[in-house]
Amino acid sequence: MWRVMTQTDDNSMQPPLLDVRGLKKYFAVRGGWFGRVRAQVRALDGVSFTLHHGKTLGLVGESGCGKSTLGRALLHLQPPTAGEVLLNGVSIGANRRQLLLEERRQMQIIFQDPFASLSPRRTVAQIIREPLDIHNIGTAASRRGRVEELLSIVGMRTNALNRYPHEFSGGQRQRIGIARALALDPQFIVADEPVSALDVSVQSQVLNLISKLQRERGIAFLFISHDLAVIQHVSDEVGVMYLGKIVEQAPAADIYRAPRHPYTQALLSAIPVPDPQHKSRRIILRGDVPSPLNPPPGCAFHTRCPVAIERCRHIQPELKPAMAGSTHRVACHLAD
Amino acid sequence: MPLLRVRDLAVEFRTQQGVARAVDGISFDLHAGETLGLVGESGCGKTVTGLALLGLIPSPPGHIAGGSIEFMGKELVGLDDAQMRAIRGRDISMIFQEPMTALNPVFRIGSQMGDVLRLHQGLSRKQARTAAIEMLAKVGIPEPAQRIDNYPHELSGGMRQRVMIAMALSCGPQLLVADEPTTALDVTTQAQVLEQIAKLQKEFGMAMILVTHDLGVVAETCQRALVMYCGRIVEDSPVTELYATPRHPYTAGLLASIPRLRNERISELPVIPGMVPDVLHLPAGCSFADRCSKVQAICRTSAPLLKKLPGREAHVACYDPN
To answer: So what's the pLDDT on residue A4?
Structure first.
């Protein structure tokens, strides 16, 4: 089942679908006289990765680590402060709005809260059709046909077409959001916590739908979640974020079997296991995540790290291959 | 005698579309010091059950439509507000999911904690402050003597939840109802808070009802669990039995469908087909019948009662338990 990406993989022959280089997003904190900028929140502090066609990168981290900001910065929903995003080798988000519209045909997003992301005043048909309208695709009749097709892809009946979002449950609303994201046949979808607001029994239905879309339509996903178990189910590769940076990135099988960063290890050990016989060797982290307004010097994790050494307090570790040529990258002084 | 004895408890809400029976005749016992998980998906009635125990059902539109809640031999259903206030916070406490909305944003945490202590234990302001600092230290808040003068917004989510716990435990209650106490927290913080709750529970020898949708949290903290579906208890078992051999098809489906860490990736997660029926239009008979793979004719006409399985500790409401 695992498709581990290596240098010899056929994917490396063509340019990656997405090439993200040194992406940063700072938010200014204003205050005082004339709203001067008093500080910068470094929500995203230099993130680089590549994503190949039809692959899924799972992005995991706790609240405030910058994972949602990354998803939005990729799509230029929030223009990044610095860095570059290349889609099929072409840099996106150059100031021209028209160009961005073109690029967004290839990149869509599914949001966490299906209650907030669908307009309550529009029917399901109008919601799903909107991308087709904006991009002026097809005729009125062909759009109607396409909307029906999209509904059936996400497993809903056509009698939903003329109803409003409030008539549907959370899981069904999320299906509507997915249908909308599929309308333009994108190559890439950012799924930002798509199942977090759903009940367990519905979660698995929606996750299965997403897996099916990956398999059958070859869509690449950036799948953002705080839940490592959910991430494992959908991802080819997993990135772990902490305070605006990726601290570990590896093929999914590797990261779950042999996590190298102490933060990843703690995160994995903290998941409550639905089995009372399971004896967990839990690593309990002390303290809280430091404020991204004022990140600690050196390794940002050193304030909570159970194995930190003197060097961690001063020198920031780089994200680099755990061993020469390895696809397992980790940012930790102790991983060498 | 059990600490808490709930019999045929029913809670109804009047809505514009009709009467919703959120809790539909549930019965269970809870013994001193025991930890009981109350699990189920949203709308199953688990939170309403917790609120009913503390007399916190918002009325109108809701009310306790029948049954009894006996706590330390005393009937709670039918008590007036003043009588209930004397028990709430002192003998039975509750912590909520979202500590930011449960704490008052305009008062320092010390004054909010002090209110509880002065009301129930008749302490002076000064004594209450000392006791509050002591409690904050117990729940693992660093520098409690400084933190006590913070406002809730100055604390992180994990710290706020600790303050809630400190407040709930400050009068040494016999029973703590914790409604999704860690759901709003990150996993690493959740691990800290759960560890702290378990430690304090042992220290205070108190019973706890943990209301949650997270079967992982139940497995790690509870001795026994009630699984609720559409306002009824479908299974009541010791957790070791519940997870090893779930008897009710709903419990089995729920356990199978959780995305959990696996040794290898599977292509498709098991699912429970369909969705939870509308609480206003519950089917006759078993509410799970439409989603159940083992449904028989009788399931659609009369609801199965919660019965003890012969030779087992598990109670299950199913005509054909696993």
So the answer is: 45
The per-residue pLDDT for range A241-300, each reduced to its tens digit, is 999 999 999 999 999 999 999 999 999 998 888 888 887 678 888 877 888 888 899 999
B residues 109..148 contacting A (CB < 8 A): none
Q: Is residue B300 part of a domain?
A: no
pTM value?
0.85
Nearest partner of A102 among A72, A136, A126, judged by Cα: A136
| CATH number of the domain to which B204 belongs | 3.40.50.300
| B123 in any annotated domain | yes
What letter does residue A166 receive in the DSSP assignment?
A: G
Range of the domain at B204: 4-222
Does the beta carbon of A280 lie under 8 angstroms from any beta carbon of chain B? yes
Report cis status (omega within 30 of 0) of the bond before A194: no
What span, in angstroms and rounded, lies between the C-alpha atoms of A261 and B147? 32
A240-251 pLDDT, tens digit per residue, is 999 999 999 999
Provide CB contacts within 8 A for A13, sequence distance 6+. none
Cα separation, A195 vs A217, whole angstroms: 20
A:157-176 residues touching chain B, CB 8 A cutoff: 169, 171-172
DSSP 8-state class, residue B245: S
Is residue B118 one of the residues assigned to a domain? yes
Taking an 8 Å cut-off on Cβ atoms, the answer to whether B266 and A233 are in contact is yes
- DSSP letters of A48-107? EEEE-TT-EEEEE--TTSSHHHHHHHHTTSS--SEEEEEETTEE---S-HHHHHHHHTTE
CA B191 centroid distance within chain: 18
pLDDT value of residue A63 = 83
Other C-beta atoms within 10 Å of B132: how many?
26
Instruction: Please answer whether residues B277 and B287 qualify as being in contact, where contact means their C-beta atoms are separated by less than 8 angstroms.
Output: yes
